[in-house]
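Can you please make up a protein's amino acid sequence together with its fold in token form to help me picture the idea?
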Amino acid sequence: MRNIHTKILSVLFSILLFGSLISCEGPGSDNSAAALLGLDIPASATKSQFLNRYADLAFESYTQAELDASTLAAAVTTFDSNTNPSASDLTNLRNLWVKARASYLVTEAFRFSQGPIDTDTVLDCEPTGSVSQPHDCEGLLNAWPLDEDAVDSYINDGGNSVTSFASIYGEIGDTNLGGEPEPQEDKIVLTGYHPIEYLLWGKDTSSTGAGNRAASDFADATTDGARRRHYLKTITDRLVVHLGLIKDQWDPANTGNYRETFLDSANVNTSVGNIFQGLGSFMAGEWGGERLTGVIGETQEEEHSCFSDTTKADFYYDAQGVLNIWTGNYTIQKGVNISTGPGLSNILSFRQQGAIQSEIESSRNIFCINLSDTESEDPNFRTSCPSGSLTHRFDQAISSADSQHGILVNVQRLIGSTLNRDFVAAAAAIGFSVVPE
């Protein structure tokens, strides 16, 4: 009897060993051998180990976002000094915006977690601004939707100083600038990625292409052309400043910053709980919620990056950002891990992880970045797309008449319902409550 038991254990060990050899994928691997045997595998990292990796991941992510934004800003400075920029000059800025946008989008998974990106009591991005109340950084970097006519109104108003960020900042929310019949204060957005996007592409008035602003709009010979260039430079420079402020809060070389509080041994459960809550809120309320409202309304105005037609990249990189935190890998280009470490999944057992990783990957892979007219410089641009992925433009697919509309409906269910449900269950399995907002 003892020999039989020994042989059984030997066979099981051999299967597990073979499984580990064929599926050595590092953090976030699917543990297929364990699944085959119906076994559970305990958590491979402590909460403190994960939190240290999370802090490093945040610092690395915002460092790259700042670097790419700085490259864009340097090119904008050159563009601003040219009294008659060419079409190729403008195309260069568009391509640099696309790259900078990708590295910022993966940072969105750090939102709603009580961190420096969107908690003004942690970091006020404009403490000396003319607007008296504190302003969280996310609102200055990525506010949406925007009434683009407000940007034009500000530039066309000869009485203001477009080269002064303080002047621009002071006009945020001023409905007198709005172009809609009933201007809304929260749509009077004058800073960040989307006003820059609007300046570079102009209005997108069709479903067959992105906006097509002419380079001559920035020429001295055009009314307000010089002012448009100066405005672009001012808000792009400030974009870099704001990203740098967030990065500094995660910098391990700094003292007295948010990172120190976040990693304090007395705050371990609070920090982990904030991450669970933040990701749950991001999945249900933003990434799988507000961003997909266009699927219901079927209006082009609901498209997140409507001027450049790069909305598919918004969804792709939001998914990648969530995946980065889940696995602990820092990745922008698919399959290329820039750095690795223990992710959120590693503080869960194999069974507790469930199908979350495959659900995140599926929600990412559905969006094929394939638009040659506007996305060719995206790190994940491809000329051929996997079967079943969204190949049409987002502003086409939101129409129920489009043959790929069902793909968007399904991804909304996947993120906002299935993934969110499984994520809440995973958090509860180790004692954390998630109430998506």
